[in-house]
Amino acid sequence: MDYTAAPLEKLIEEFGKFQGVGRKGATRMAYQVLSMSDKDAAALADAIRGAHTRLHRCRICQNFTDAELCPVCASAKRDTSVICVVEKPRDVQAFERTREYNGLYHVLHGLLDPLAGVGAEQLTVKELLARLKDDTVKEVIMAMNPTVEGEATAMYLAKLIKPLGIRVTRLASGLPVGASLEYADETTLYRALSGRGEL
Fold this sequence. Notes:
Low-confidence stretches: none
Number of domains: 2
Number of helices: 8
Function: May play a role in DNA repair. It seems to be involved in an RecBC-independent recombinational process of DNA repair. It may act with RecF and RecO.
Distance between the termini: 65 Å
Strand content: 5-15%
Strand order of the largest sheet: 4-3-5-6
CATH topology of the largest domain: Dna Topoisomerase Vi A Subunit, Chain: A, domain 2
Largest sheet: 4 strands, parallel
Shape: globular
Structural class: alpha/beta
InterPro entries: DNA_Rcmb_RecR, Rcmb_RecR, Rcmb_RecR_Znf, TOPRIM_dom, TOPRIM_RecR
Family: Belongs to the RecR family.
GO molecular function, one term: DNA binding
Protein name: Recombination protein RecR
């Protein structure tokens, strides 16, 4: 018999819908909310409601914004000749934290995954191709995770973009800092070798 009060169970159920959050994690989060003051709980609810109602996709890059254009697309200081294609909006934040990239972005909102029923129509491929129609963009960087789906998506997009005369590159990937060569797989070592640079 379950002795959890219905409102608490509902809260646990909702937190459990988050990707990567199991029953234990959802329960921990629910009890954390219950330990908040009324003011803090209301602020959390308002933040969730505000994000859900005020944020939408940028007209150009498809990243989330509360204006017509996101800050990157609206900036006159960005290099408009390079577009970095990423899977998710939070990938943009990861690149921006490095402060090393000054081009534009395009968010796909997923990867090709035929087994899960995700094709090019479910992604923002059409919007990406529309951005390449004039001669402004000279390079498109494929910055997807090196998974089967990421590789398939990068190859699919490269086949569509290369005929337009635009350079298509991918992120160099290889050994993380502190990794041991003996434990690296062949693909990682190959990428580390082929993506090597001068010292």
